[in-house]
Amino acid sequence: QRKLERSRAHFRKAAKRLPLGVASNFRYWGDEDTFYIARAEGGRLTDIDGNGYIDYRLGYGPTILGYCDPRVDAAAQEGMRIGSVFALSTERELSVAERIAKMVPAAEMVRFSCSGTEAVMAALRVARAYSGKDGYVVAEGGYHGVFDAALWTTDMEGWAGEGDPDLVPYSGGVPRMLRSLVWQVPLNDADRLEDLFKRQGDKIGAMLIEPIQGNCCAISADPDYVRAVRELCTKHGVVLIVDEVKTGFRVARGGAQEIYGIQADLCTFAKAMGNGYPISAVAGRRDIMSIIGRGVVHGGTYTAHAVSLAAAEKTLEILDETDALETIAGYGERLREGLSGVLKQRSIPHCFVGHPALSGLFFSETPPAGYRDWKASDYLFYDTLAPLLVDRGVLIEPDSREPWFICEAHARDKAAGDCLDETVTAFAA
Ligand code: PMP
């Protein structure tokens, strides 16, 4: 059992000044269970009560090499000496864009921003301007950020499976008038998407998809479906936006697009590209991206901040030129095997989905086929397991929606101990 006295006392003070006592709704774990971090190193966190955790949330994905990676931090410090933001550009923007273009063939041109949300907002604006159509489609189970256009969800209760699912805003304050611009389609149903494009193709200018759903337990689309989406978008003049904010520079050098063998029209990156420093990018086809500046606005005071840009340059260099991603995938495999061994011994049905670097764990023989399946599945077991593991110092998300993230530091440093072996031991206890 963890001691949480100091976190609990801090929460009571913090909740008076910060809504829910935190800086993001997702960091609130309940009045008694919200805890605060003192520091991080490698693959581990320490909270303000001194509890240590092996971290598989990794800030929801940015930490790819490990916390406080000395190589990236040295680059960031060098960036700090250059300055911050200048309302002018630096040479390094091109160097980072060249690296992204080398790793991701679809990234013919690149623009930077600071968060995943901003990159997706930019992609959607560019797609609308290019296609001349304001409507957009989202594959169910996808998450694309905290802006109004992305905060819609299928109303499961009110939908019988026929016609277009009804959508409800995911948050108060999202203007209902925006409803007429958005459609959602179940993952893996190409016929339904084709039918939608046939009926509404004159209104729909963009489609947003995470082929590996980094925000829905890493449920992965069928390769045939992703290829069909690619073809249907081309056929109906819909700009295909592959949101690689979670998968980019994590599941492969070229992201989910490389794994699925497709090229997006536009794609978005953040998280792993800066190993935790705030930076994101929208990238894509030259003819589409070139409309930025030709009547289409893109900007931001902090875009391509010198510190983040230097960190991204070093992170991407490491991910591209070393075997870090292969190592991380190997760690993920090893962890899966270890956990699987324990579960098999106890005859507990289970399976893993996604990618070893971004894994979903399910307590069923076959994985859910999509968001609806996941909603309907019995994930109670996970809800019981997660708090137990957290109490044993293995930090995973309390519900199964967020995958397990792996970083290079989870087993790199002998002196820091092997997080993966420790996790399997904690899991078996
Ligand atoms: N798109 C995807 C696929 C994401 O996973 C996220 C964040 N979880 C976002 C967009 C939004 O990114 P941010 O939180 O940096 O705004």
UniProtKB/TrEMBL annotation:
Cofactor(s) the protein needs: pyridoxal 5'-phosphate
Listed Pfam families: Aminotran_3
Keywords, alphabetical: Pyridoxal phosphate
InterPro entries found in the cross-reference section: Aminotrans_3, PyrdxlP-dep_Trfase, PyrdxlP-dep_Trfase_major, PyrdxlP-dep_Trfase_small
Keyword Kinase assigned: no
Molecular-function GO terms, alphabetical: pyridoxal phosphate binding; transaminase activity
Presence of keyword Repeat: no
Stored CDD domains: OAT_like
Domain of life: Bacteria
Coiled coil: none
Membership in a protein family: Belongs to the class-III pyridoxal-phosphate-dependent aminotransferase family.
Name listed for the protein in its UniProt record: Glutamate-1-semialdehyde 2,1-aminomutase
